[in-house]
Design goal:
heterodimer, A: about 350 residues, alpha/beta, Rossmann fold, 2 domains, 14 strands, B: about 325 residues, 11 helices
Chain lengths: ~350, ~325
């Protein structure tokens, strides 16, 4: 049986391999060498690589500039933020400088840097500790944006991101850190800009981002019991976006649901729907649907947040409705028992 | 100070003045379709700093960096072609006046967001430190940049890691039309906030070419010797409007008298008088120097204006660096 790692362990292993392979790679972030090691993703690296693994001042924008400046002269930094909400402080350096450094100087310099950032969810994380802002980053030409959903892709995409010559925003959903799945040993890469079909199906395409790929997977199992065959395309890379892969699936199924961890309004789900409407309008048998966050900040109380986050049943219901099932709401019962504001650690691959 | 060096500094300062005067003279033609922020009046700061730097040292600039780029040795024709939006510009027409670069001389880039290149410069200095290179990074900023958060973030990090970084701060008293008195407390000089971060601080007259050079040399030498980052503040004054080629003393944010007082302290005239008094330069030599520079500038403008435009298909190229740089 193939080796299983958690998503967090896969990131740690990828980082270790990158630091070992190239003396220009270095890793910094607030808390990187601390006893928690960014949810376990950086543990032991300081001891192994010394000065190339460092803690930093609480200066998100300034340190993003430091990462960029070092990248411009040939380093390959990995900068880690514990929450994407804090990374917002660095939007100036990311959007104005890093994203444009190659372009605005006529292509004579490069900015190879990776910014890891973590999306929170549940346990009362509330309005400022759980935002899912991939659309902000994906909006800016010059940035690449990836959101791996599986341990296998976390490792392969992180190594590819470090080896890429552009600034890459690497977004990890907090709940994914716990999941486990098969992860090959040694160095391998997953290409940026290529989606992955997680499950083949003929009735409906679910294009999912990050953690929603897991909920989509669960939804597909629920749908299968009702004779609905869902295809799941894990988008993986928002920039470059693999529109071709999603379009091939939509042309086959004629139906599109986009499941996103971010807000529906102005979100990346809107971009996917728009591109598919432009590319394969004639093949659509039903209006596309988005399963994403409602138009309000994240509430803190569990009594409210359980109504905030879309889950497998919402994806499944959307699919059933698109297929004309009259009783879509009652087909999939609300989950009972398990609390909804903590990760479901039972998720294991292969997905 | 070596007399050859004194003449060279004078020449380099005069050259920047004449180049920018020519830009000003032609700006009204509206062929340079890019916002220009002229450094006329402030040139000695750039020349003093760059004379203290080696070609292998790195430098970063800001929106007002024609002088920094030229003083570091940046190619004149490539800069002018960039102002004219031509394919042969230093950024192939993708940058403009506020985005200058010449890798051959270590001028790694000027960008247009106030203070934004300061942490980037700290990053290149950090890389030099990690690699054990004998290299200083210089960053040019105005006093307004010290009001931005990233200045403080970079100053803190640079001190923490004792980076080989020199902050060359030109205090010209204005952020666009906002005077220093509405932006910084009167009892706290600009350099004091750098001192508060633990940087070594030097302060002097940015309109005194030789003083600017001596202080720059002290700053660069200290940074190179591993003593940590240095903040050098030089007092100076921008003669023309914030952006554009006109004088704007009549519009009400500053006075003609203030301008005239600074005009009387012209860095070039002062240096010239001193060199003549010391018998190192004659009036005829100055005329000859001017004529040579004029010819160079005219030829560079000619070459820039005759250079080809970028092809339309270049618009969306170089958004991403091609290919992974796999090890």
């Amino acid at each position: 049986m193939s080796r299983h790692l958690t998503y967090a362990q896969a990131i740690l292993e990828a980082t270790d391999l990158c630091l070992g392979a190239d003396p220009n790679v270095y890793l910094m972030g607030l808390g990187v060498p601390d006893p928690k090691g960014i949810f376990g993703t950086t543990l032991g690296l300081r001891e192994k690589y010394g000065a190339r693994v460092l803690d930093m001042p609480t200066s998100e924008n300034g340190m993003t500039g430091v990462a960029l400046g070092s990248a411009v002269v040939g380093m390959r930094p990995i900068l880690t933020h514990q929450r994407v909400d804090f990374a917002l402080l660095s939007m100036e350096q990311l959007a104005n400088e890093a994203a444009k450094w190659h372009y605005m100087f006529g292509g004579i310099m490069k900015a190879p840097m990776v910014v890891r950032s973590i999306i929170g969810r549940g346990w009362g994380n509330g309005p400022q500790h759980s935002q899912s802002l991939q659309a902000w980053f994906a909006h800016v030409p010059g940035l690449k944006v990836v959101m791996p959903a599986t341990p296998h892709d976390a490792k392969g995409l992180l190594i590819a991101s470090v080896e890429d010559d552009n600034p890459v925003i690497f977004l990890e959903h907090r709940w994914l850190h716990y999941i486990s799945g098969p992860v090959p040993e040694g160095r391998y890469t997953e290409p940026l800009g290529v989606a992955r079909v997680l499950r083949e199906g003929r009735d409906v395409t679910i294009a999912a981002l990050s953690y929603m790929s897991l909920e989509a997977h669960k939804a597909a199992r629920m749908l299968a019991e009702r004779d609905i065959d869902a295809e799941i395309v894990d988008v993986r890379s928002l920039r470059p976006f693999d529109a071709g892969a999603v379009a091939r699936s939509v042309e086959k199924t004629g139906r599109l649901i986009v499941a996103d961890t971010g807000w529906e309004f102005g979100g990346f789900s809107a971009e996917i729907v728009a591109q598919m409407a432009e590319r394969c309008f004639g093949k659509l048998k039903a209006p596309p649907r988005r399963v994403a966050l409602p138009d309000c900040p994240t509430p803190t109380s569990a009594a409210l947040s359980k109504h905030y986050y879309p889950r497998a049943i919402h994806v499944a219901r959307a699919a059933a409705e698109m297929l004309g099932r009259q009783d879509a709401d009652s087909l999939f019962a609300e989950e009972t028992g398990a609390p909804l504001d903590v990760p479901d650690k039972s998720f294991t691959g292969p997905f | 100070m070596d007399s050859r060096l004194r003449r060279q500094l004078f020449h380099d300062t005069l050259r920047i003045r004449l180049i920018e005067e020519e830009i000003a003279a032609r700006y009204g033609e509206q062929e340079m379709r890019t916002p220009v922020h002229l450094s006329i009046g402030q040139e000695a700061c750039a020349v003093g700093a760059c004379a203290a730097l080696r070609t292998s040292d790195y430098a970063f600039g800001s929106h007002r960096s024609h002088g920094h780029y030229l003083a570091k040795g940046g190619d004149l024709t490539a800069m002018l072609a960039e102002l004219y939006g031509r394919a042969t510009g230093c950024c192939r027409g993708k940058g403009g006046s506020m985005h200058l670069v010449d890798l051959k001389v270590g001028f790694l880039g000027a960008t247009s967001i106030v203070a934004s290149t300061i942490p980037i410069a700290a990053g290149s200095a950090f890389a030099s430190k990690l690699r054990g290179e004998d290299r200083v990074t210089a960053v040019f900023l105005g006093e307004a940049a010290t009001e931005e958060g990233v200045f403080h973030e970079a100053a803190n990090f640079a001190t923490l890691h004792k980076l080989p970084l020199v902050f060359f701060c030109e205090n010209n008293l204005y952020s666009v039309y906002s005077g220093l008195e509405v932006r910084q407390p009167a009892h706290r000089p600009t350099w004091a906030s750098a001192k508060g971060h633990g940087l070594r601080v030097l302060y002097g007259d940015g309109n005194d070419l030789e003083e600017a050079y001596e202080l720059s040399l002290k700053s660069v030498d200290a940074a190179r010797a591993g003593e940590g980052p240095v903040f050098l503040e030089l007092a100076t004054y921008r003669w023309r409007e914030h952006c554009g080629h006109n004088y704007d003393n009549h519009i009400g944010y500053r006075t003609e008298a203030e301008y005239q007082a600074w005009r009387a302290r012209c860095p070039i005239e002062r240096a010239q008088q001193r060199l003549i008094a010391d018998g190192l330069l004659g009036a005829a030599e100055v005329d000859e120097m001017r004529a040579r520079i004029d010819a160079e500038v005219k030829a560079a403008f000619e070459a820039a204006r005759n250079a080809p435009w970028p092809e339309p298909e270049e618009m969306a190229t170089q958004v991403y660096a091609e290919g992974a740089n796999a090890t």
